[in-house]
Amino acid sequence: MEKTVNIDLVVIGAGWFGLAAAKAYIDINPLHNVVILDSAPSVGGVWATYRLYKGLATNNIVGSFEYSDFPMDERFGVRPGHHISGDSINQYLEAYVDEFGLRSRIQCDSKVETATHSPDESWVLHITQSGSSRCLHARKMIVATGLNAEPIMPTFAGQEEFQTPLFHCRDLAENESMYLKSERPVTVLGCNKSSWDTVNACAASGQQVDWIIRASGHGPILMASPYFTPWKVKLERMPSTRLVSWFSPCIWGDGRLPRFLHRTWLGRKVVSAFWKGMDKCIHPVEQYNAHPEMQKLMPWGDAPSFSVWNYPTDDLVDAVRNGTVRIHIANITHLSSQTVHLSTGESLPSAALICSTGWKPCPPIKFLPEGIETELGLPSGNDIDEQIIDAANKHILGRLPRLKKERHDNLPNYKPMTDQEPDHPYRLARFMVPPSMVSERSVVFVGAIHTFHTGLVSQAQGLWAAAYLSDRLTITPSSELPASLRSGKQGDAASREEDVLWETALHSQFCRLRHPGPLGKWHGNVGFDLLPYLDLLLKDLGLQGRRRSGVKEMLGSYSAGDYRGLTREWRERQLPITGLRTAAEDRGHAPSGWLAGGFIAEVHDVNNFPAAEEPRSTACFDSLGIDGDTPDSVLLLIGWA
Known about the structure:
InterPro entries: FAD/NAD-bd_sf (IPR036188), FMO-like (IPR050346). By secondary structure, the chain is an alpha/beta fold. The chain folds into two domains: about 5-150 and about 360-575, FAD/NAD(P)-binding domain, CATH 3.50.50.60; about 150-225 and about 295-360, 3-Layer(bba) Sandwich (FAD/NAD(P)-binding domain). Strands 1, 2, 5, 6, 7, 8, 21 and 22 form an eight-stranded mixed β-sheet that branches. Strands 9-20-10-11-16 form a five-stranded parallel β-sheet. Strand 7 and strand 8 form a beta hairpin. Helix 12 (about 385-400) crosses helix 14 (about 490-515). The longest helix has 23 residues, at about 490-515. It is globular.
């Protein structure tokens, strides 16, 4: 019989978002029993050790990919002006785990098979690890599996006869020795950023590559230079600059200048001119036209996906030009022994077929009871009422007319990679909370969002999620559901839930209209709308979003340093009891599990809480001279770290 362990919070995923959310929750609730689960053998998410291969790097340059409370300095092998290597990111996250006392709470190689929502609003998780299984009973759950958890792996006619490695690019590191330096070429399928990275890794090792771009796919992504203009401005700074954000139509951002730019004829002319200039800077057409093979990498349609050229040299371009990398725009018809057959009639001898074919949009977890996907707002469930969606589209286009003429994913030959492709995005309030469960406060999804600034967004979402689950934050919609669409249910709670659903429809539909390609199809996207999104979360937390003054606020680029001390700032607004400090706080920061600064004391009946597997730490009681051994009640010290 499986043993069930009772805990306060389970965090599923030990990547950027999961670690940030876990730390924030523990800072707020230092006596709660928190467990972090990850199916991988180490922490890091996409930057876990088993996924690191030679040459892998971030799209970010040093200084723009870090938590505000833990600077990424030279000890992690980073160099100013360079992209951050995968090894450096992995070392950084491992150090972060140790710095803030998260290591003892992490359980790796633990795959969550099912998560069952109980009538008492808690969650029961069935977990497998090394052939054995166990159960966790958690009062709260944070799902932090991110965008790249479960690969889309196509099947091909004849693949059982292929007799050659066939795998997803997720497993590239584990298979390097099987295909590099082979006498036969390696075949790569796909043209997303992962495929570029895969082709670059193979070509850099001297391997011949056949690169297949699906004729029925989305086509090549737009690869932009990390710097642009004669002044070498970092591209990644643009989304975190207030002035630039005003030029991006955004449904959750507002202000006098944005209203002028997006709601007047003259303003829209200015906006169009701005983005045309930006497009010329980041999309150098002459580079594609310089060689017939490079022309095959020209993005298709009006709404291609977007990424950054993060390779140290132009060797990949040279490899395309000299034939080391051969590009085929075709579909795979079938496989035979060590050969890939194309719709063009070509047959490609292959040492391996590497599929860079994307990721499933939903978490790799079976949620129960059956049908709860709809209640959770997942793409795999049923969508919200069509009338609400239509009204949301009308509202958005009325407020942001430019989106009527926005880019379209006009690819008439497109066919999904699988037959199970969802037809609607996540429907999550603030891109985190299922609207129908907003009053329950039992579950949050973090990291289900596209952003250029993972460090900033993960920390803001983490604090928001922790405050929300701790009942210290309430979502206040800025727009009300039209009266004609209301259900007629009575009560403030029902009315608020409907308004939250309406705002969720506005935000998620905006992303589909603003980003009609793959980057807006299923997930939220805050690319150039980063600052308005952070402002929105901080407003919910009662904090100031605009953290600079004067010209710096308008023209300066926000970085992690601008949000340093965010948790402490929020804590100071939560009715602190002053004068209590710990030795850890005196040293400059308070590791998880310690009180820092003020706290609120509450008395609860011990029978109202499930028993933890291990006794809660009494270190906080001891440091204050308080006896924690109380048989009938527990004095909970909720620290605001």
